[in-house]
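In practice, a research group might receive sequence data for several interacting partners and want a quick structural hypothesis before committing to experiments. The following worked case mirrors that situation: the sequences arrive first, and a predicted assembly follows.
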Amino acid sequence: MIVVMQKGATEEQLQEVVQILEDKGFRTQITRGTEKNIIGAVGDKSRLLDLAIEAMTGVEKVIPILAPYKLASREYKPEDTVINIDNLSLGGHDLQVMAGPCAVESKEQLLEVAHLVKNAGAKILRGGAYKPRSSPYSFQGLEEIGLKYLARAREETGLYIVTEVMDTQKVDLVSYYADVLQIGARNMQNFPLLRAAAKSGKPVLLKRGLSATIEEWILSAEYILKEGNSQVILCERGIRTFETYTRNTLDLSAVPVIKYLTHLPVIVDPSHGTGKWRWVQPMAQAAVAAGADGLIIEVHPNPSEALSDGPQSLTPENFNKLMNSLKPIAQAVGKKFDLSGTPEYFGYSQVI
Amino acid sequence: MIVVMQKGATEEQLQEVVQILEDKGFRTQITRGTEKNIIGAVGDKSRLLDLAIEAMTGVEKVIPILAPYKLASREYKPEDTVINIDNLSLGGHDLQVMAGPCAVESKEQLLEVAHLVKNAGAKILRGGAYKPRSSPYSFQGLEEIGLKYLARAREETGLYIVTEVMDTQKVDLVSYYADVLQIGARNMQNFPLLRAAAKSGKPVLLKRGLSATIEEWILSAEYILKEGNSQVILCERGIRTFETYTRNTLDLSAVPVIKYLTHLPVIVDPSHGTGKWRWVQPMAQAAVAAGADGLIIEVHPNPSEALSDGPQSLTPENFNKLMNSLKPIAQAVGKKFDLSGTPEYFGYSQVI
Amino acid sequence: MIVVMQKGATEEQLQEVVQILEDKGFRTQITRGTEKNIIGAVGDKSRLLDLAIEAMTGVEKVIPILAPYKLASREYKPEDTVINIDNLSLGGHDLQVMAGPCAVESKEQLLEVAHLVKNAGAKILRGGAYKPRSSPYSFQGLEEIGLKYLARAREETGLYIVTEVMDTQKVDLVSYYADVLQIGARNMQNFPLLRAAAKSGKPVLLKRGLSATIEEWILSAEYILKEGNSQVILCERGIRTFETYTRNTLDLSAVPVIKYLTHLPVIVDPSHGTGKWRWVQPMAQAAVAAGADGLIIEVHPNPSEALSDGPQSLTPENFNKLMNSLKPIAQAVGKKFDLSGTPEYFGYSQVI
Amino acid sequence: MIVVMQKGATEEQLQEVVQILEDKGFRTQITRGTEKNIIGAVGDKSRLLDLAIEAMTGVEKVIPILAPYKLASREYKPEDTVINIDNLSLGGHDLQVMAGPCAVESKEQLLEVAHLVKNAGAKILRGGAYKPRSSPYSFQGLEEIGLKYLARAREETGLYIVTEVMDTQKVDLVSYYADVLQIGARNMQNFPLLRAAAKSGKPVLLKRGLSATIEEWILSAEYILKEGNSQVILCERGIRTFETYTRNTLDLSAVPVIKYLTHLPVIVDPSHGTGKWRWVQPMAQAAVAAGADGLIIEVHPNPSEALSDGPQSLTPENFNKLMNSLKPIAQAVGKKFDLSGTPEYFGYSQVI
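A structural hypothesis for the assembly, expressed as tokens:
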């Protein structure tokens, strides 16, 4: 930690800061400049402390040197974390695609999509049973019955299930049905929910908040890791900027940054990231080229009848096209992308 | 609702949209342009529906005409909502100040601040017992014991209590102690929490999310109003922008905008809005001049020892100075600002 | 300057950085942490150098300690700069209002507005002869003839003239007619223009760029000061954020921040800052309460016929109302606000 | 154009709007809603007019239907524009890479880089002779002598030259030396410069402004096209957001969006877009996968000695690595990427 003293701060003020830092177990060193003095403070607990040095008289600002997270850092664990969803690997050399409708709307809709995305090569089915909607008048999800349909789709297709949980009181219920718990962007800093989801023992898919910095996002992952659950998948889904042509601004730079700073896998959601089906394929391709470990994509048998996020949902046909377009790009960046199970590759339908 | 068809959309595509809209009970009218056709759709349920028209073939975009909220709108209720916290009025002609430490740290700290802010003229005590912190290693609050200290401070000083609730499972507990439930910026779109807080029957202080548009913020208020709780206070606390000199960018324009669009009272938090005690007074003054119904301000007896947000906390002396500076501005904009109880005005301490 | 070395950087890499810094005349001091080492570097030229230390192997990041500007800083010149526009003072204890149409549209329009704003108490007339418009199909200004009308309005009313210059090739011409040269938001980092405007010797009104940080804005002022022109007025006019309800987000915190960091006067443009006449008065009041040295406000005799920015222009009646509303607020914050010249104050018209 | 009337607007107010629109040559149609009435207005000049309808009494807002640009639109010219830089094609099926130092620093530096990037497969040399720098104390470029070095590099290597012009007074000079004129991000809305650059007849590389919307960016291209110069290359170089880990946020979604809305080629600058050499390769890969027509990349023989933007410059070795990594991705998206001239491909050095 670096403490920058104000120009004109007195020697007493400087010594007072030094004293407090040393009382807390830091070693300190003063660098005297022509205009301002600075204090370097080092010590084991430097990333854990929450001192209000900046509020002391004579202090201009405090600059942290160490990242505020530990368990998520690449320094703590140099090798990539690979998530095991039953016998499926996410992270490392594998590229995985999660696909399905924004919301579970009916058993028929869900099962239809499940078979379609499976045939196109997806291994994980997405679908919201609890939907966080800006307006209280929008469809809020089928709730528990939606979870049951997801379970049924898993039985029928063998796809794994990822679905969102929004409330600590529902974590047990959602965990009962889901293979991966999704924490949505709006809940990225819902800390009680992060802790509860961690304790479920299930892998957690942590979406980046709409205006979360990369550091805050990693700190939210740290909440989960700190509870002893190391199965965290980060998901870039677009941030909020001044640009309105796209629904959000997909920050693909976050992909290599996350892989540099942490050992956690990172996937990309080009559906929410762009808000329009038309941009989903090029941005999915770009995500893979940037090094993403996976994608989560909205697919609907009939987007214009979707109860949620229709405009950004792919038709099954376009989803199939997208999956095929990813193959050579995955290869170019050294990722293994298994499209088996699709009629194109095995010559018969995998539908049970 | 206006549906803009793409250039080159066929007549069939246009008629299909018209059909769906009429099936849903809308009246429609087509305006044929030289390049694009548009469909105007009117009907009672126009603000409540969630159609995926934008996903239909041939449709370029859908432009809503009516605001997506109803109960919060000035059109629904033209007169100002005045919140009654016991016999204290917030909204309308009164200016109220909430003040206190960011976090409840100890009984002594809280009681000291409580007496000080009361003497300076505040009528409501703020203080967090549950603290949403970006890092899991930061102080997370005293939890239930913090609530007990707040109750004790109320007994001793007569100040009303506003404190944050972060989890649906704690709403009953926090409601038992608090006069006003605070929903923090990070939870503005934690919809289960909004509903649970609404059902407590207590007034709810709803902070604006870091990257929430004014419309989304009002929609979150609508969630509370829809549960039958009309006691909602909105709080502007700064939004996230590219500017880093201040912690957030205090969007004071939101004050007159909220008062124009809704009937709800709006207060301002210049402590979080700026992140530095030095800017709190000028921005508090500006907030009152812009028409705010109140302020929420962090005060700490010794900011440099604060366990949370020390740099933005005022010393009691500076808080006193601020309160006095607001008096003539409140008067200039026609607000009643009662500083009674302060030694300056009554010549004796109001401490019980 | 602080250089933070990467975890695992070698001693050689550290010594190489030290060597380069010392070669450039810095004194250095190494603080060795448990994970990372840091180098403090101090020296007279620290704010002027442009070293690419961050590109050296083993370096994680470079953190500047001193502000990158000098002539603009409060440290360099502790007392407020007061701009003298002929015998009018802007800055210090005076509050000045500049008002007029967005664009000069005709002689009649301009003279009508000039008399009206003068009668309401403004001392400076604004009006664009060269208009920077996003679209090439929008009205681009009357150019030189517009300047002549401004000169005529000055003759008739005694108001001083502020008008925008957009091109280095027009600086001489615009300077010939204007009392204050305006650099628009889009040109805040048009460095050749900054230099040319500085050399005109006229006071320069420097608007903040749409996405300029406060530091970048001050650096642009530094360009002007460095050419020997100390007459710089900064103007906050709203920044670009995700919020679309207002045209821009008026960052009023910039007012006290600028006054703290620099000695330059700062004024506020609530017309562009909000984009809608309805919010101009409350935000003008807030600007004064935050400590602004002046305001620049769009007034049009008939806003719905304005060729530019009609929606944000005040009618003369609303402008008059606004001016009167500012009086008590200016008084509350210790500013002298001279409304003389208005019929209300002197009982007769000042119109020549 | 759609005009939305306020709730409670009178019939007279509505008719007044209709009258004005019809006077201007629009056909109008009124759609009467239960709460608000709307007026649809169609006519040939709808995209060219600049009416202040929004300032009329009773009007809530005006919603444009047609894009405000014409010549740049895909509707105006359906087929891709291919830029011919002498006998080199940019746009269409070709992928082109521009590379070189941020600033021309010396003849030796420039020639060294020129040969290196040529050998790696680049066809166009970048290098700034006039540098727009935030601080007046930073290196501002070698100016005309820098242009001469660029010309010399062209002679020696056969590379084409792209370099920035910052002032209308330098357009002739820079055009004399450059093959492509670059308009920098800070000058994207320097309209006199856009016009002057257009008139040079040279292809213009138009960088996106730091906070420019896609629509504003296209409108700036429209300024150039309107002067009769159809050779415009758009360049995404990152936008300003709240995220500070990267220097800017590279908005790769802009690539498919630009290609959908316009017929112009679009390239990507991952060096400025990320600000750190480490992220340049993954984001260059992502740009190509998203469909970009080219890249512009900073390369420096010794980044730590660069006078500008060293941290984001690639070493020649890393640049070579990047170029090879692009080959399979270009192929995957159907782009022709010619790396000929490199020793790896032809077995001998092309260095003259």
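Before designing any experiment, note the following. Chain D touches chain B through 25 residues (CB under 8 Å). The CA atoms of residues 328 and 337 of chain D lie 9 Å apart.
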